[in-house]
Amino acid sequence: MLRMSLQIYDAIRQHGEQTYPHECCGVLLGRFLTEDGGPVNAVEDAIRAGNTRTDSAHNRYQIAPQELVRIQRQGREHGLDIVGFYHSHPDHPARWSPTDFAEAHWLGCSYVITAVEQGAARQTNSFRLAGTREEDKSFEDEVIEVTGQLDPGLPPRQANNGLAGDPGLEPGPGGEVAQS
Ligand SMILES: [Zn+2]
Q1: What is the Å distance from ligand 1's center to 178 Cα?
Q2: C-alpha distance from residue 80 to each of 27, 45, 100, 149 (Å)
């Protein structure tokens, strides 16, 4: 499970709207917890990163290694780890692409993808990179728990992927190959 405040959740989605039609990307700082036997990546901060893929910014994202190191150091000063990454899919479903998978190396981290259609954020999904090493890694659908919502009259907003029972959201054959 991925846990974050509504403020952070909205900030991630707004970042995708601001960079549209290009992809945004950023780093999630927080703590790796275990609750009820399951992993919980508890986000404390979302750090915006510059997309260095200016050659193909509409369907590629990349965080410069120097920037990643700086963010990691910044987190450690506050006792926080890198627990995930986020990026947007402009006019494309919020599902990971083969490129996303190939370029994901942080085992145990959450990879958050927000679909941005016509400049407006739509679905936000998270995928946890499971496995013990590069050779057996896999993406697992992950529920996003959004906390700190102000209106107690509303049921908790489950910002999960919502794909169960909705096969219409699965990517079409080959439809997402070029997207990262
Ligand atoms: Zn992607």
Answers
A1: 9
A2: 12, 9, 24, 23
